[in-house]
Amino acid sequence: MDLDQLFEQGLETRKKVLGKEYVENSFDNADEFSMILQKFVTTHAWGACWGRDGLELKTRSMLNLAMLAAMGREHELRLHLLGALNNGVTKNEMAEIFIQVATYAGFPAAVSAFKIAREVFKEQGV
Question: CA 34, CA 79: separation in Å to the nearest integer?
Answer without folding.
Answer: 18
